[in-house]
Amino acid sequence: ETGVTQTPRHLVMGMTNKKSLKCEQHLGHNAMYWYKQSAKKPLELMFVYSLEERVENNSVPSRFSPECPNSSHLFLHLHTLQPEDSALYLCASSQDPAVESNQPQHFGDGTRLSIL
Amino acid sequence: TQLLEQSPQFLSIQEGENLTVYCNSSSVFSSLQWYRQEPGEGPVLLVTVVTGGEVKKLKRLTFQFGDARKDSSLHITAAQPGDTGLYLCAGGPTDSWGKLQFGAGTQVVVTP
């Protein structure tokens, strides 16, 4: 039990589909993150939310749209994805990083996304 | 951009052997975190080192932060199959807000 739950675990979709990834944390944290993990590449930070406000957007294409309705839930809405978007998408949470930048991050087990 | 390079990319050893993996950068970090990721799971934090020259031990794992806070190493003594996984280092920034910079990882396989 990691305290961070991601659904679905696997997702196969066509390039014209719309789908959403969900992340829920039960750790009382107030910062949440989306990362993209591709084989043999460093984790790429996509979005950071602190206290439900987006504080980081690392030049991610607009076909990825995050949503954070409260400090426990984070969504990643997907639309018109490309084959190169196939990857493992990881959600993480931590205490507010603005307080202390060395906060450890707690990860979910990810959603394995395949674009046909 | 602060880049973290991990070496080797892949390491396969027999149970009982020792191994060391490295995490290097040309930039200074405020801290260095090590994570282990097993197949089908997310990364799990092993340790955080924050002081230059710091050494931390976690059972058979020894972590060291370089004096200049630019590099770190992870040494595993008498490796076991349960140590198999992707080892990731992540540097805490000195000039950015809350962002960790991850390396690409070292895949370690320990065979019985």
Keywords:
heterodimer; A: 116 residues; mainly beta; seven-stranded mixed sheet; four-stranded antiparallel sheet; 11 strands; 55% strand; B: 112 residues; six-stranded mixed sheet; five-stranded antiparallel sheet; 0% helix; 52% strand
Plain-language structure description:
The complex is a heterodimer of chains A (116) and B (112). In chain A, a hairpin with a 2-residue loop joins strand 7 (64-70) and strand 8. Chain A is mainly beta. The termini of chain A are far apart. Chain A has no helices and eleven strands. The model of chain A has no long low-confidence stretch (mean pLDDT 90). Chain B has 112 residues and is mostly beta strands. The radius of gyration of chain B is 13 Å and the shape is globular. The model of chain B has no long low-confidence stretch (mean pLDDT 92). At the A-B interface, strand 5 and strand 10 of A face strand 4, strand 5, strand 9 and strand 10 of B.
Question: What is the oligomeric state here?
Answer: heterodimer
The tally of beta strands of chain B, per DSSP, is 11
Order of helices and strands of chain B: EEEEEEEEEEE
The total count of helices of chain B amounts to: 0
Estimate what percentage of residues of chain B fall within beta strands: over 45%
What is the beta-strand fraction of chain A? over 45%
Q: With helices defined by DSSP (H or I, 4 residues minimum), what is the helix count of chain A? A: 0
Class by SSE composition of chain A:
mainly beta
Task: Give me the secondary-structure topology.
The complex is a heterodimer of chains A (116) and B (112).
Chain A: E1 4-7, E2 10-13, E3 18-25, E4 31-37, E5 44-50, E6 53-57, E7 64-70, E8 73-79, E9 87-94, E10 106-107, E11 111-115
Parallel strand pairs in A: 2-11
Antiparallel strand pairs in A: 1-3, 3-8, 4-5, 4-9, 5-6, 7-8, 9-10, 9-11
Chain B: E1 5-7, E2 10-14, E3 19-24, E4 31-37, E5 44-49, E6 55-58, E7 61-65, E8 71-76, E9 85-92, E10 101-102, E11 106-111
Parallel strand pairs in B: 2-11
Antiparallel strand pairs in B: 1-3, 3-8, 4-5, 4-9, 6-7, 7-8, 9-10, 9-11
